[in-house]
Design a protein that fits this description.
Layout lengths: L1 H13 L1 H9 L11 H13 L14 H14 L1
Length: about 80
């Protein structure tokens, strides 16, 4: 183990690992556009979420699940 670490550190000091990183680099993925439904759902969830939270801002018991269900129902209308 220690010998392997020593060999790896020697390679890094020689710049070998930098060469490998540039060769194997991949272009960053392009982000997908949000669907119309997901945008409507987001707005509905933000509108309904406060009803299912406590004064402190924490979720009530089962509140998150109920808020999700209510938001889906609101978008469906």
């Amino acid at each position: 183990m220690a010998l392997r670490r020593l060999i790896d550190s020697e390679r890094e000091s020689e710049g070998a690992s930098l060469v490998n990183r540039t060769v194997n680099s991949v272009a960053p993925k392009t982000k997908r556009k949000a669907s119309a439904y997901s945008r409507k759902y987001k707005a509905a969830f933000k509108k309904t979420a406060p009803r299912y939270k406590l004064k402190s801002g924490k979720w009530k018991k089962g509140g998150f699940k109920a808020a999700v269900k209510a938001a889906h129902k609101a978008v469906k209308k």
